[in-house]
Design the sequence.
């Protein structure tokens, strides 16, 4: 996993801000389903806010303005950030992770620091990691068992698919001659048509 994070860091450090925001937005969009399920189960949170924010980010990548909108969005995001102590379903943790990712996306847009894109990537990986442990009924892990757990997670098909998804996005964005509406539409479609991050039936 450390090798993958190194690749993301190196690639994103060479990206333009448009490329970086696009990579971050694609990862955030892939997490939306978890928040939607959370709102259905808990009857809390504004899923449509995140949908609208996602569309605005994509439509604004080419201009990279509207900072005032993003400042307001940070405040709205905070209102939709679940406090895990207040919810009982497993879906709350996935909604929490998604909010972390969107918060990093907003900070990326507002301050241009590429580190936020790396944090988004890590958050998606952490979400898949959490799911694998849930799927495999991992509850308490002794320190001496951590290396074996890490190997199991790295070799799980969900993690392999997630690493390949992000690597494919990085390659496509890197190889594109320019960031334009056609590329954004194409890469969004590609990203959405890939398998879900996790098996969301485990959240019900």
Sequence:
């Amino acid at each position: 996993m450390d090798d993958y994070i190194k690749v993301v860091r190196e690639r994103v450090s060479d990206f333009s801000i448009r490329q970086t925001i696009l990579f971050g937005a694609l990862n955030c969009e892939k997490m939306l389903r978890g928040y939607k399920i959370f709102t259905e189960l808990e009857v809390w949170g504004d899923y449509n806010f995140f949908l609208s924010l996602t569309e605005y980010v994509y439509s604004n990548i080419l201009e990279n303005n509207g900072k005032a909108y993003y400042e307001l969005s940070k405040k709205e995001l905070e209102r939709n950030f679940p406090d895990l102590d207040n919810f009982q379903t497993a879906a709350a943790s996935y909604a929490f992770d998604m909010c972390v990712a969107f918060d990093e996306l907003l900070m990326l847009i507002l301050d241009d620091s590429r580190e936020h894109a790396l944090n988004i990537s890590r958050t998606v990986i952490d979400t898949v990691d959490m799911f694998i442990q849930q799927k495999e009924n991992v509850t308490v892990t002794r320190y001496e068992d951590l290396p074996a757990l890490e190997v199991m997670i790295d070799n799980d098909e969900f993690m392999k698919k997630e690493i390949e998804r992000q690597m494919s996005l990085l390659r496509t964005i890197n190889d594109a001659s320019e960031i334009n509406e056609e590329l954004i539409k194409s890469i969004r479609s590609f990203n959405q048509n890939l398998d879900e991050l996790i098996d969301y039936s485990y959240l019900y």
User: Anything to note?
Assistant: The chain has a mean pLDDT of 94. The chain has one domain: 2-203.
